[in-house]
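User: Batch of two.

Assistant: Item 1 of 2:
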Amino acid sequence: MSNRKKPAKAATLPDKLFTGPFRQQYGALCFRRTEGAAIEILVITSRDSGRWIIPKGWPMKRKKPYEAAAIEAWQEAGIRGAVHKKPVGRYTYLKELDDGDVAPCVVEVFQIEVHELNADFKERAQRTREWVSPDEAARRVREVELKSMLADFRPRTGRKMQAE
């Protein structure tokens, strides 16, 4: 995907991370097991800059955080699977808003073990998706805290729900 724009305003304003309230978002760390029990992580491109990210979005009315993460994974990447109810971590970043301003965000990340990958999803024309190793996923994303989470990822066991 080569829809690269000029550097985001967020890249030039790191001080924004330290002023004002953080906005909450929920993200999905989508993974699958390959033959041989290796783990692959799904990364997607952002709609604006084409940089590599994980599916994420804003809170949704009447949805629990893990449910919102599962919905974002479906809309942005066409995946469904078993989502854990407790976050596996969090990271911060600067979100460029529609008005050109930037807002500091904290993203709670929920793991989803993928059971269904669909080619027909809402944002399919706006994103590229790729399955990569945890190390490669960490190399592709920009956010330092997310890099660490991806590089050190080990699937959790315990309470999870099957996504619909």
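Item 2 of 2:
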Amino acid sequence: MLVTAPVEQLLTGFQLAETRCSFCKTALQEGDTVSAYAVQYAGDESWSVPRLYCRTCRSTIEDPTLGATELLAEGRLGLTMDATTQRTSLTLLGIERVAQSAPEDGRATL
């Protein structure tokens, strides 16, 4: 079953594994403004956020990936707490879409 949602809803609260800028490697923390690159490959049901960028290193989608839906969004980092486990996670908040590419927008590479 295909489920669609706005980018803001899709990425708000997304738990992040990486907490450094993908370009300059600056440590990112709660309250920082970031750009998040999210991708969903054709045939996959889940999204991933493999790259974050600090305010200085903001990025764009210059070369879309064939067969992938790519999003670039801006927002800030916040903490979400699981009351049962008493664990916190760094998550995305206040998301606004900056750029998007569709699976057919990319080009094949040889």
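The helical segments are 7-11.
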